[in-house]
């Protein structure tokens, strides 16, 4: 049958992860490449996954005091220049608008690489007294960073979708709590919704967000041994508030400078999700994010067709009533084998097979997408049974990702050991570190691995007494990895 050859994934996750990833994204109908290099088109199936990620996070944000707002796509150059670290940090990546129609603009406009510089002046306006604080804004939008790298859907694109939260607080404690609340929500998203165990930490000082006091991060390990910065939450201190005059009168009418935060998660989370769970049959999705959670596939001969179809339709209707996202695949012109392959490619977490035997015995056969495990169950209480199986599928995905992560954190005590271990295995290598950026350089130059994080707790004792690179006293534990 023509078409069947087009369906399968031909690349191997193990041997050619880059090509395999690109093939899964396209064949599972998540995204296509746009005509301009660095841009992608997100197809409905891909966008549906993003919407579910969005809806989980958005609910938690609102439950914890954040409100959504929307600011312009363009930022006047003079606004961008008000925080010098931001200008310097983003300068090579900013796309500029110089003309409106045929007329040259008096002031060029930056296409937002991030929105601190356009949001902060309004936060300053809206903050008069301590009663206006905390002020918590969030924006769902796209940003543009003109990086000249090879396009990798959801991982590396010049324009990407994200959310950016921006908050102002009366003091450091309030702002620091906020930073951690958001970091915990990102961790929760990865664990409970995406079935991935992330590592939580801080960026080393030389790699924090431009202008930030502290950048906290959740990092996720990819199957090719590289780390992905999966979301970040920044405590900005008072630098942005000073640059943009976010001040407030306290209870004694004294003028104070606010402390601010910003925090963001992009669709790179989707890239990490696809790469972590999917396999050589195609996409694998955790049930919480799958647009279709269950597909019911009836298997019939001419003489059993009516009975099987009626039974399958009833079953699907009952699941739909229980709010399971279910699809009945009763297409006449496709055989069951073709349908199985297609739903596996598209990452439907649970397949229910219904044939004459199931009808006769009032049963249903459930097959798990991630590992093909199947079980024949009673037709009674099928909605509860299916919910249990979807939970089991989430747990299986999580356990498998966790097992991979645990085996991929190793220790090293010398520069050679760091290079050898990452060179051979990839993954994370933790070691003592003196805190000097210069000690990262030789690792970066030799194998393009860097310090992706240090422990969140500043008081935590380093795992070794000496810096693995220079031998001086270690200040903290550094996690080295190659990263996206
Ligand atoms: Zn050192």
Automatic annotation (TrEMBL):
Pfam family, one: ProRS-C_1
Keywords for this protein: Aminoacyl-tRNA synthetase, ATP-binding, Cytoplasm, Ligase, Nucleotide-binding, Protein biosynthesis
Domain Aminoacyl-transfer RNA synthetases class-II family profile, residue spans: 46-286
GO molecular function: ATP binding; proline-tRNA ligase activity
One Gene Ontology biological process: prolyl-tRNA aminoacylation
EC number: 6.1.1.15
Compartment(s) where it occurs, according to its Swiss-Prot or TrEMBL record: Cytoplasm
Subunit note: Homodimer.
Comment text on domains: Consists of three domains: the N-terminal catalytic domain, the anticodon-binding domain and the C-terminal extension.
Protein name: Proline--tRNA ligase
Organism annotation: Haloarcula rubra
């Amino acid at each position: 049958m023509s078409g069947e050859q087009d369906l399968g994934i031909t690349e191997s996750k193990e041997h050619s992860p880059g090509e395999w990833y690109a093939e899964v994204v396209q064949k599972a109908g998540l995204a296509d490449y746009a005509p301009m290099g660095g841009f992608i088109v997100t197809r409905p199936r891909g966008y549906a996954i993003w919407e579910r990620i969005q809806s989980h996070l958005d609910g938690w944000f609102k439950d914890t005091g954040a409100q959504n707002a929307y600011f312009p796509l363009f930022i006047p150059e003079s606004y961008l220049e008000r925080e010098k670290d931001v200008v310097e940090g983003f300068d090579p990546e900013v796309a500029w608008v110089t003309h409106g129609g045929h007329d040259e603009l008096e002031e060029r406009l930056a296409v937002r690489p991030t929105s601190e510089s356009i949001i902060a002046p309004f936060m300053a306006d809206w903050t008069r007294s301590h009663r206006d604080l905390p002020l918590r804004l969030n924006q769902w939008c796209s940003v543009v960073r003109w990086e000249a790298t090879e396009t990798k859907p959801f991982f590396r694109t010049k324009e990407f979708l994200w959310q950016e939260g921006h908050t102002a607080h009366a003091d450091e404690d309030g702002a620091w709590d906020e930073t951690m609340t958001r970091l915990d929500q990102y961790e929760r998203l990865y664990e409970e919704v995406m079935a991935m165990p992330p590592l939580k930490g801080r960026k080393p000082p030389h790699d924090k967000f431009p202008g930030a006091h502290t950048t906290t991060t959740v990092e996720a390990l990819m199957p090719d041994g590289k780390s992905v910065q999966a979301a970040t939450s920044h405590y900005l201190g008072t630098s942005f508030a000073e640059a943009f005059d976010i001040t407030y009168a306290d209870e004694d009418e004294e003028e104070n400078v606010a402390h601010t935060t910003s925090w963001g998660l992009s669709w790179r989370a989707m890239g990490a999700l696809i790469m972590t769970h999917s396999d050589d049959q195609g996409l694998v999705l955790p049930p919480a994010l799958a647009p279709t959670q269950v597909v019911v596939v009836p298997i019939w001969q001419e003489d059993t067709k009516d009975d099987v179809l009626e039974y399958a339709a009833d079953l699907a209707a009952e699941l739909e009533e229980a709010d399971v996202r279910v699809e009945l695949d009763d297409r006449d012109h496709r055989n069951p084998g073709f349908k199985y392959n297609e739903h596996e490619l598209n990452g439907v977490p649970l397949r229910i097979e219904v044939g004459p035997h199931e009808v006769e015995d009032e049963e249903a056969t459930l097959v798990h997408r991630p590992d093909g495990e199947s079980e024949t169950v009673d037709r009674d209480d099928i909605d509860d049974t299916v919910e249990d199986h979807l939970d089991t599928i989430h747990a299986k995905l999580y356990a498998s990702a966790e097992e991979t992560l645990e085996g991929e954190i190793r220790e090293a005590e010398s520069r050679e050991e760091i290079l050898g271990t990452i060179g051979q295995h990839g993954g994370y290598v933790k070691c003592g570190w003196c805190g000097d950026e210069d000690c990262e350089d030789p690792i970066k130059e030799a194998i393009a691995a860097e310090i992706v994080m240090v422990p969140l707790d500043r008081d935590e004792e380093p795992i070794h007494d000496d810096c693995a690179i220079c031998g001086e006293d270690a200040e903290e534990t550094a996690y080295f990895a190659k990263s996206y």
